[in-house]
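Lecture 7, part B: from sequences to assemblies.

Below are the input chains for today's worked example.
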Amino acid sequence: MEQRLANCVQLTVNEKQFIENALLSELRVDGRGPLEYRKLSIKFGKDDGSAEVQLGETRVMSFVSAQLVQPYKDRPNEGTLSIFTEFSPMADPSFEPGRPGESAVELGRIIDRGLRESRAIDTESLCILSAKLVWAIRIDIHILDNAGNLVDAANIAALASLLTFRRPECSLGGEDGQQVVVHPPEVREPLPLILHHLPVAVTFGFFSNENLVVLDPTYHEEAVMTGRMTATLNANGDVCAIQKPGEQGIFQHIIMHCLKLAHVKAGDITAKIKDAVEKHNNERALQKIKRRSSSVSVDVCGTTARLGGKQNQSGGGKDNSHLDQLKPKDEANFMECDATSSGQVQINKKDEGSKNFTGGPSSWYGKKDPYSECVNSDLLKAPMDSEC
Amino acid sequence: MESKLSGSATNLVDQLVYPGDVVLDLSSMTNQTIKLGGGLRQDSDVISVMKAGRLRFSKPNKYWVESSQKRYVPHAEDSVLGIVVDSRSDNFLVDIKGPAIAFLPVLAFEGGTRRNIPKFEVGALLYVRVVKANPGMNPELSCTDASGKAGEFGALKEGYMFECSTGLSRMLLSSPTCPVLDTLGKKLSFEIAVGLNGRVWVNASSPSTTIIVANALINSEPLSGVQQKIMAEKLLQRVQ
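Predicted structure of the full complex, as structure tokens:
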């Protein structure tokens, strides 16, 4: 009994009155105007598909993972998307461990509806083998700190993590062409998900005084307000979902006004998410290049040496050529890989300038670059064919 | 090492100490009585620290460790801000941010008798004093000072209450008046009640003043005295 008393949201009568009174003169307790958003910052984890969003003091972490499963029978060509929420008691004492509460279910549903029913994610591209094997995308949302407006923060976190998620590339092989080969990330670059648009949730709070509307309500305002509306829109202003819990009725013109505001906000937030993702992708590309340099450079070295030898052989004797018949295919593959990575290297060079030439393993690129420019894989293939 | 320890007691006062630090060596201070407060304990012949914070010393012989935390551990004679969560026939149940709900006896008011029991709705904000804080028991509160007068204790009307760390509360209560309050008080008129449990109530004639003061106080926590002053002055310039 006492524990329950201690756990519930405690807001004094004074605060309730003050919040409403201050709003009448267009002031909010954290110094914002009624239609201002809190500061948003998006951070990404080391793994692909993990993002942490901080909206004011609210913190939400999201993690995307993928698994190969059998599709639903009525949709044999579509991958699946599911959302799981985790409300930690550390975020708010009113969250109970174990079973998900009402708010946890609602939050998951709002995000799910925004993403799935607006068909933001191209689920058909997640199909590998019709009616047999598709990718099941799972989004785990963890609430780390609750300072109000969890829905918006969680939605942004989900979008950010979806945008940075990479799934392993798959191909069909085997005798009947039905065997699925999942390529590890070292062999083939993992693929991003296809997102058609970004549905952004924007939450409004309504108070007993019908003319009061706030954007992005805080924890305290949530305890005072009588109604809430979450509109999920994309940057084009298409309404993907609307959720309006609470008993209070709202006039039509207020809702239309809110949707217009939400459109503007959705544009802003989309831009912020895209900026953050782009920054992260650039950093990631740089890191990838550095990592590859240590593992692949040895192979690259080997191929160059062998290639050198081969050119001599093609000039010298034809006896050895059949011994090497297996190799050219591999090399062609290697060179294709290199071609892509050298493209990245060139981008890298623009960014980093002469830095590449100073480091130990990364200095390989300085040496390799001119080589891959003059020899491309097509040139290599042609002499091989003529040999055979 | 030994010689260092005997002199270290005075050196460490007002310094940051960490768990395990030895602050006093009892073997070198016979015939003295010392009183230990929170965060210190006696390990046979030495007094060592149990939590991170600043070591404080009060004449003649009191030592304790002061730290800033979000949770409040009730101590007798602390003035705190409590929120009424329920009322029973003989007690109000008051939340003071402690590990257990505190009891405020209905008779613990100035001139309190069975006939004139005050009425507080759930959610009322009270400025109260902790009377008893025994381990394993719910703390007991009172709305009177030690001599039985109401003083400033009682319900707080209107205004805005925010929560902060216990460190900030202590800073706001320190004397001489902390720079941020001093600077704000010269230009703005407002009422303030600071509870040692990390709750601060601010009231002013206009909501904007209340919000400015509340945010200035929240922002001043990590700042030094001079920085606080600069911050408050900048804020005031922007307002006027």
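Note for the exam: The longest strand of chain A covers residues 133-145. Keep this in mind when comparing with the next example.
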